[in-house]
Design brief:
Layout lengths: L1 E5 L2 E3 L5 E8 L8 E6 L5 E7 L6 E3 L7 E6 L4 E6 L8 E7 L2 E2 L3 E5 L2
Parallel strand pairs: 2-11
Antiparallel strand pairs: 1-3, 3-8, 4-5, 4-9, 5-6, 7-8, 9-10, 9-11
Length: 111
């Protein structure tokens, strides 16, 4: 299982980022996928999840209305569109699925 996140970076409050997670080594389209983040000095926090077919989406309350999870099973890729970013969204974002974890991508929201 290999999961590789990308798309993180430095963005001002109110800005947007789109994270991607490229999957390989397992049948991506058969697995539910999850985004988890970890802020400095804090434990992991579940952010969002999507079922294998992409028809069921789940969000933590703090992300509802701002984040959108999606997937392209033909491209073996998971996405997280993040809008209206806040400083408290600063964290390393990880994707998970297929019994594996990615290495994470840093998101920093700061002016």
């Amino acid at each position: 299982v290999q999961l590789v996140e990308s798309g993180g970076g430095l963005v001002q409050p109110g800005g947007s980022l789109r994270l991607s997670c490229a999957a390989s080594g397992f049948t991506f389209g058969s697995y539910d996928m999850t985004w988890v983040r970890q802020a400095p000095g804090k434990g992991p926090e579940w952010v969002s999840a999507i079922n294998s077919g992409g028809g069921s989406l789940y969000y933590a309350d703090s992300e509802k209305g701002r984040f959108t999870i999606s997937r392209d099973n033909a491209k073996n890729t998971l996405y997280l569109q993040m809008n209206s970013l806040k400083p408290e969204d600063t964290a390393v974002y990880y994707c998970s699925g297929g019994n594996g974890w990615g290495q994470g991508t840093q998101v920093t929201v700061s002016s």
